[in-house]
Every structure is written in C-alpha cells, then in structure tokens.
Amino acid sequence: MGANYKITTMLLDQRWNQRPGGNRIPRYAVAHDTGNEGSTAKQNYKYFNSRNLEASAHVFIDDQEILLIIPLSEKAWHVRSQVSDANDWALGVELCHGGNIIWKEAYKRYVWFFAWLCRHYRWIPEHSIKGHFQLDPARRTDPVNAFKKYGVTYQHFLQAVEAELTKMGPVDDEKEQGTLYRVQIGSYRQPENAVEMVKLAKKAGFDAVIIKTK
Ligand SMILES: [Zn+2]
C-alpha cells in the first residue's frame, strides 16, 4: 500500500466562463504547474472563483491538499485550443510550488494523484499523461521548468507515477465489476407521474428509464 491522500472537492461556481460544463469520460491528463510561485491550491481556487477568466484547470495540488475545482467529467480551458484537443478530452492538473510550499510534499501528492487517475481510468502513465510543454512546445515549458528547480526530470516524474501505481495494487475487477448498483429515484401508481420524473431526471442530465413491476 502506498500513500492514500484525500481529494478535496471545492467546485467553482457554474456561472463563470472557466467552468463551461459538459459530460465526457476524460481520455488523458495534462501535467501543468501554475507558474505562479508560492500560490497555494486554495488561493488558486479563490482566484478562479472570483471573476470570469479564459483559463482553468480541474485540480490544483500543493503541499497540503489535492483540490478538485472542476468535476473530472466536465471541460476546462487549460491548453490553447489550436494546439490540441486537451480542453475537450483531457484533465488539467496543476502543481503549486515555490514560496512557502514544501516541494517534497506537493510533488508526492501530484505524483499520487496522477497514479490515482491512471488507476481510476485504467490508463498507462506514459501514454495517458502529457506535459503541457509537449502539447504547446512553442509557448509552454510547464511542468518541467518547475521540476528542474528541484532536480526532477519529466522522465523521473513518469517513473514515479508508474511506481506509485504499482504500490496501489491491481484493480480488483471481479470485485468491482461483478455487482451492479442501481439507483432508484421514485415509484409511482400513476404512469404520468413516472413520465414526469423521467423528464425531470433527463433535464438534470441523467438518463432514466421506466421499469414496470407488479
Ligand atoms: Zn500549463
């Protein structure tokens, strides 16, 4: 067993441009650093939740916490649209560093979270994690510019994620896939009430079906 960190959810208000919504299963993750030395995960949350911005990311990580500010199923604007499909299909994960942030602790959480993503989505680290510098080499150097200050290379990072993933152990597919958990939201005597509830569920973004039982 490796470390087991907590992922804290503190979502941006949906009224902001930087949380455009959507509902997809992400295909890969992009490793970023904030490029703003000393700014913590919570400070980033506050900044991104205070005004309309043209950029965003799903998760900010510092030496204290792993802070999820946009649901992983939603879109975020973390890479220039012209250079890749990352905004539509990838998760943006930002490393906070510098200032009073303890590098070792922040980096450990960052590595752990990428391993957690790989386990969760059944991704292979070297195929499913891209550095921002790889997607937009003309304009970006993150997260390797931050890594360099602490003697870490991008290759070290991928190896560390791989090692963490191994420590987490295999996903117990039999246990996790053998049972179905069905969510029920109502039972009605009048069919029109059931139809009404399906409409409500669909409007809220959930697929729903009516099953008749005696
Ligand atoms: Zn970046």
TrEMBL record:
One example of a Gene Ontology biological process annotation: cell wall organization
GO molecular function, one term: peptidoglycan binding
Keyword Hydrolase: yes
Domain of life according to the entry: Bacteria
Enzyme Commission no: 3.5.1.28
Catalysed reaction equations from the record: Hydrolyzes the link between N-acetylmuramoyl residues and L-amino acid residues in certain cell-wall glycopeptides
All copies of domain N-acetylmuramoyl-L-alanine amidase, residue ranges: 17-144
Membrane-spanning parts: none
Gene3D superfamilies, per the entry: Peptidoglycan recognition protein-like
Keywords: Cell wall biogenesis/degradation, Hydrolase
CDD domains (UniProt xref): PGRP (cd06583)
UniProt enzyme class: hydrolase
Tagged with keyword Protein biosynthesis: no
Protein name (Swiss-Prot/TrEMBL): N-acetylmuramoyl-L-alanine amidase
Source organism of the structure: Fictibacillus enclensis
